[in-house]
Amino acid sequence: MVRKISLILLFIIISVFVVACKKETTILAYPEKIIIYRNGTKQVLNQSNPSFNNIIMLTNKRFNNIYTETIDVDDKCIQNAKDDGIDIEFIYAQEQEFNVVAEGLKQFKYTRLFFPLSVKNDKKNDQYLMYYGNGKKYLNNPIVNLSPSEDLIKIIDKL
């Protein structure tokens, strides 16, 4: 009897572990639209685009050991990135929240996110950043240490 109960408990533990491992990481909510910038050109994707879900899934996989860094952000910085390289921007209809656990819990509220993906050599570290902003502008102190994603760039290149 004890052996049967032990086997049943072992089966339940293994099942829970397998389900937990298969679950996709969801850090960011689904935006209303995604804007792709390629060397000054702009392409808008809505949720009906077949690549929309893959872009979000791969972006969520980039979050690992993130933190904030004191960097002043201005409109010129963001516009330069949009004009040079490959970037994505998530636009939300409603305000979202994002928590970062680093030296305590920090909460960020945003309606748009900007991710430089492929940048020139003098701005190479920018590809590890996530800028967040409200409806008017991007704010200082971006999220840093995102993992690079060649798969994400490949999907964007095919669009």
UniProtKB/TrEMBL annotation:
Query: In terms of domain of life, where is this protein from?
Result: Bacteria
What name goes with this protein? Lipoprotein
